[in-house]
Write a structure and sequence with these properties.
The chain is α/β, with parallel strands linked by helices. The chain has 12 helices and 10 strands.
Length: 267
């Protein structure tokens, strides 16, 4: 599928009637920022006459969740931090609800690691394919952030409340194989067969009535009160991010990350 130039942080491609949206911050692990989420939301608003939408990431990662360095950079004053995080969380929730409201099926093509709130892009999609080398990890307990992106709003409906709570508490790294067994993803693919797996899934969906998928989503989300659950995550995140302990954890995380990069550069 050929990607055409779109907003700088989201590449938009179209092949026949399939729209592809590629998160395009590969140097930052496709981490989420208000600008990227605004670009993704604009692209989702532009879905017209599409048979399906495929969301993926550029480079080696699907998405590393919220950009911790950007959050820390905006934490020099409580007002600036609250403003930035409000834009980030509101933008993420808006995108997730946009995905759920689309009239066509959505596939998350998970080409690499998924951490933090970017899991929401998988959970909001109707189907997902994970590369066998990909993994999922919360990172909330390590960072001191409150869960966002549907970790409490959507994931428990898939794997249960107790399993979700354990995953968040232990900050477990879950492999693609484990994610398939848990029901978090629908299919695995080797690197060389990743595009073929997406094409195969699209071919199956082409035989089905897309309106049934959209109607099912609407009914399920009404029963679970998805919008309210996502808003509760936003409010909890805004409270948690203001703590000095969270700022200290961000500093330790960023320091360890820089040290690991420096060590890698000396090899």
């Amino acid at each position: 599928m050929t990607a055409a130039a779109g907003p700088s942080e989201v590449l938009i491609g179209r092949e026949d009637d399939v729209l592809s949206l590629t998160l395009n911050r590969p140097g930052r692990g496709n981490s989420l920022t208000p600008d990227l989420l605004d670009a993704l939301g604009a692209a989702l608003n532009g879905v017209e006459n599409a048979r399906a939408v495929v969301i993926t990431g550029a480079g080696a990662s699907f998405s590393s969740g919220g950009d911790v360095a950007a959050i820390r950079l905006n934490s020099d004053s409580p007002e600036r931090l609250q403003s930035y995080c409000e834009a980030l969380l509101s933008g993420l929730n808006r995108v997730l609800l946009q995905i759920r409201a689309l009239p066509c099926p959505v596939i998350a093509a998970v080409n690499g690691p998924v951490t933090g709130g970017s899991l929401g892009l998988m959970l909001a999609a109707d189907l997902s394919v994970m590369a066998r080398t990909a993994f999922i990890q919360p990172y909330y307990a390590k960072m001191g952030f409150a869960p966002d992106g549907g970790w409490t709003a959507m994931l428990p409906d898939r794997i249960g409340r107790a399993r979700t709570a354990s995953w968040l508490a232990l900050d477990t790294r879950v492999s693609a194989e484990q994610a398939l067994e848990m029901g978090v993803t629908d299919r695995l693919a080797d690197a060389g067969a990743f595009e073929a797996a997406i094409s195969d899934m699209l071919a199956t969906l082409e035989q089905h009535d897309a309106s049934v998928i959209a109607t099912s989503r609407r009914l399920l989300d009404r029963q679970t009160g998805l919008a309210d659950r996502l808003d509760a995550e936003r409010l909890a995140f805004m409270t948690q991010i203001a703590r000095p302990e969270t700022r200290e954890r961000m500093d330790r995380f960023l320091g360890a990350s820089r040290a690991a990069q420096a060590a890698g550069g000396r090899r």
